[in-house]
Amino acid sequence: MKKILFMLLTLSLTLASCSSDSVNTNDGNPTSQTTLEVNGNLKALRKKALADLNQGGRIYYYAEKGAVFYTKSRSNIVIPPHSIKTKHGEDINGILDIDYIEIFERSKMVLANTPTMALINQQKELLITGGEFYIDIRYQREQVEIVSPIKVNIDTRNSDADPRGMVLWNGDIDENDNLTWQPADSNDLTFENDGETFTNEREREPMYDILIKNSRNFGWCNVDKLIYLPGEKTNVRVTVPSNFNLSNSSVYLAVEGQNNALFQLDTFHSGSNSFQFSSNMASVGLDVHLIFVAEMNGNYVYSIISTPLGNNSSYIVPTNSLIYTTNYQQLEAAILALP
Q: Counting runs of H as helices and runs of E as strands, what totals does the chain give?
């Protein structure tokens, strides 16, 4: 497992990486893989969106008393007494810097490039989320060491998804900032109450209680469950304009009426300049929104195709359908307006 550095707000945030999300193939030889890196401008757009989504801040921590950090989204981070130390094993009494990102809806998943797709036994599967979250805690600019579990309480009101049956996942991110979820190891990340929601005494609302047991688990985590779309399974191909490819664009599939899931067409075919899934995972007849998002000259470009899926259907993003914008709020609003 390779360690990479993911930059957010100019701070170093460490995350484990062991998988590649987007595969670039040549249509003449689909087994061959070539590398096509995401360009710096697209990475910068995503980084800016993530920075704006950061609900973190600063809190004073006493080793003897612990601390609780409350977020704008009604979630909270409980850091019990003597649960964290410096990398040299020293008690901490001072100001903690906390990064905390929470994502529930597909519009923000597009901006942050955090689709709900899992890798299980080398096979991609579809998820519905009860919340994606990113956490990092630092003291004097160094990441703290967790010596006994800290807890993140996620408010279930933030998600429209049924909270029953949710399990925990870790986020693996590749060199192109593409993220895939993998089942969490219970030795690293677990529910305090076996996945059951509980009533928060402060808000009197149902919460998830997630225990983070060690510092290597800082980064992206997820409360999700597998979603099985009914009907005959199929693939879908989306051909994009010739000046776009894997280096500066992505294509996502959103299901009509499902705000808490987003799927990425994770395979790029250079010969046809098109994106599709790595296997048949969509459903024939499903009403979907195909969301093309790209970067041009440091700004967003997007187009949305709303359609029922045919069997192995192909779609073309017309050049005259592209919408150019200098801010992600317009893109987010367009996705929020989708049924």
A: 3, 31
Residue 317 tokens, joined:
């993003």
Q: What is the DSSP letter of 247?
A: T
In the chain, alpha helices (H): 40-53, 106-112, 328-336
C-beta of residue 245 within 8 angstroms of C-beta of residue 34: no
pLDDT tens across 102-125, in order?
999 999 999 999 999 999 988 999
Residue 296 β-bridge partners: 299
Q: Which residue has the tokens 């294509």?
A: 251
Rounded Cα gap, residues 211 and 208, in angstroms: 10
DSSP 303: E
| Interstrand relation of 263-264 and 282-283 (parallel, antiparallel or unpaired) | unpaired
Instruction: Say which residue, 104 or 28, is predicted with more confidence.
Output: 104
Q: Which residues share a beta bridge with 272? A: none
What is the rounded CA–CA span in Å between residue 190 and residue 239?
A: 41
Q: What amino acid occupies position 236?
A: V
Residue 3 has pLDDT above 50, yes or no: no
pTM over 0.90: no
Q: Helices 328-336 and 40-53: crossing angle, nearest 10°? A: 70
Q: Which residues of 57-72 are buried (b: 16+ CB within 10 A; e: fewer)?
A: eebebeeeeebebebe
Structure tokens at 162: 């049924």
CB 79 within 8 A of CB 61: yes
Q: How many CA atoms lie within 13 A of 122 on its CB side?
A: 0
Tokens of 262: 């987003």
Alpha-carbon gap, residue 281 to 124, rounded angstroms: 8
